[in-house]
Structures are given as C-alpha cells and as structure tokens.
Amino acid sequence: MNIATEVLELLQLEFFWRAVIASTLAGLICGFVGPYLSWRNLGLLGASLSHAALTPISLAYMIGVSVKWLLLPFSLLISLIIAYLKEKNYNSLDSVLAIFYSGFMALGILFLSQLEFGSTEMVHLLFGDILTVSWSDVLFLLFVFVFILVFAIKFKKPLLLSLVHPELAKVEGKNMKYFTYACFAIIGLCVVASLKIIGLVLLTCLMMAPTLMATKRTKSLKAHFLFCSLAGALLAFVGILLSAVFNLPSGASIASLAMLVFFINLLLPATNKQS
Fold it and tell me: Which terminus, N or C, of the chain has the lesser number of Cβ atoms within 10 Å?
C-alpha cells in the first residue's frame, strides 16, 4: 500500500481529524508562548513544567481519578511558585527549574513503578499518543487558544513592555507583578493542554524552535508572534501526519521535525537584515 492510499484512508477516520485539529491547536499555542519564554530567558520553564507533570499524572493513575483533576492545579501551582521566585529575583532560578525538572519526574517514575504500567503505555505518556485524543481535548485546546489570544490582545501594552523593556516594566509596580503571575499561569495551562499530543519529554521543542527560527525571519514583534504561531501549527500538522502514516509516536514525530527544520533554518541566510 502506498503512502497516498494510506493518507486517503486516514482522511476517512474520525480519530485522525481529531488528532489533526488538536495538534494544530497545540502548535498554535506552543508557538505563541514560545517568544515569551525565549525573551524572558525562561527556556527551561516549559521543560520543567512538562517533565514535572509526570508526578500528578502518575498519582492520578494510582488513586484512580481523572488526570486533569490533579494535573491542572499542580501545573498552575508550580507555575505560580516559579513566578514568585522570578519576581523576587532569585539568583539560582535555573537551578530550581532543574530540580523541578528532574525531581518531580523522578517522583512520578516512583509512583509509576508501583503500578502495572507496560512499556507501550509509558511511550504514549512520554511521547504523546494521537489515538487517545478526544473531542473534549480538542475543545479544551480551543478554549486555551482563544483565552490566550484574548489575553494577549487585552494586555498588549504590558506584554510588550515586559518583553522589550523588562526593567522599565518593574517601575510599573503591582500591576506588572500580577501580570507576570498571570503569564506564568497561562504557560502552565498551555503545558497541560498540549501534553497528550506532544508528550512530557518533547513539548519544549515545539515551544522554542519556532521562536528561534523567527529571529532570522521577522523584523517586528507582531510578525515574530505570527511567524511562531503559524510555524508551530505547521510543524504540528506535518508531524502528526507523519506519525499517523508511519505509525510513529506523535510527540517524537513533531519534535524531530521541529529540530530538523530548526537546523535547516540555521544554515540558511537571514531574511530580516536591514538593507
């Protein structure tokens, strides 16, 4: 059976359309929050939150409750703790993120070791699984995307100020402080929404690759965000298509493609230089 035939067969399956829509939304979300992480020197934040998520996920399996009941409040809490440390100018924030990164993942592995969890389930958990995506997951991703978009439009001024002039933003006082907490909480929400598609281990790649590519392709902040969102959506769409056709883990397909395109972009000359 050739690839074209397989694609045509996939187009007739409902789960494939769910996966395509969900992955595209996840790509839009990850691409949109990537510039904030990059410009605030928080590249490790996404990795820390996604890896730490193994603790509430495994705990939910242990006690037999829905994963989202534990994952969402846990991610929001960790995000707010990190935001507090960031606001207090904690000198070793990267070290704290590294501890969250490895410590909570290790705790999650300990929980999973007490369960009858096969290697296949572990692969799906760590690297994503398009077969488990439901319409409720799609609606949740759509809600998160719309929420982020409305938030960014409504708070455009403080967002730009925090990215371009963070020192000046501090002069604004309490309002900017609460804005920072809100941004970190939204990042935690993005991680929760995207985990099922991309998996725990590989989520950061889709967040960071588009924004690093955009530094060579865009001349304005607006263009940068637009490029990152569209690039994230396209990478996720093509990655999920490769995953379905070749029966590969969805997260690994998306992250590998993002890395490949990133390295190709590195080799190509920049297009945003002033003439």
Answer: C
